[in-house]
């Protein structure tokens, strides 16, 4: 998707590319190991896109929701703990205003984000160039 939209974003002066990752990109869960692995790979790509697309003034967001009230959450048996999808949209807006790369929009995500914060600031968010 980034490959298709990056030229369009560039032609329009930059813009925003928001990648929906997951808390599962940060921690493996036994019942969903393949999902976690695919989300971890997506997160790695998002980190690279952040640096690559910054060259064309495109802001990249890495969004890491926890259990959200969706059909997928219901199918995974997370209905009881799932939170409203509006939290994800609100989190993206807040991140845009603050200039944040990581978005942890719900209570589960915020707990994981707090634990991950030091690593993110000292390793992930340090630009390689």
Automatic annotation (TrEMBL):
PROSITE patterns: ADH_SHORT. It comes from the Bacteria. Keywords: Oxidoreductase. The keyword Nucleus does not apply. The keyword Ubl conjugation does not apply. It holds the Pfam family adh_short. One of its GO terms (molecular function) is oxidoreductase activity. InterPro entries: NAD(P)-bd_dom_sf, Sc_DH/Rdtase_CS, SDR_fam. Gene3D superfamilies: NAD(P)-binding Rossmann-like Domain. Belongs to the short-chain dehydrogenases/reductases (SDR) family. This is NADP-dependent 3-hydroxy acid dehydrogenase YdfG.
